[in-house]
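@channel sequence for tomorrow's demo:
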Amino acid sequence: MKLPKFLLADNSEFPEDLFVVHTEYPRFILNVEEEEVEWLDDLEGDDEETMADEATKVVESAFKWCDEELAKYDDEEEE
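structure tokens (generated this afternoon):
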């Protein structure tokens, strides 16, 4: 099965929170409201600084994607 890179998720136990699930390496779940990340994969690499930079970039991409996705919902509601 081919999965999208990012998925939006919510849960009734956390009604105020919105989550982004990153399905590619390094997989993680981002709590958008709390700005917390739960890593599902161990970050591997020789250079910790490079891995930290890459992790930061992918989390920033998740936030950007989420903002763009929510804007699409807002646009649909306005039509």
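heads up for whoever presents: The helical segments are 48-78.
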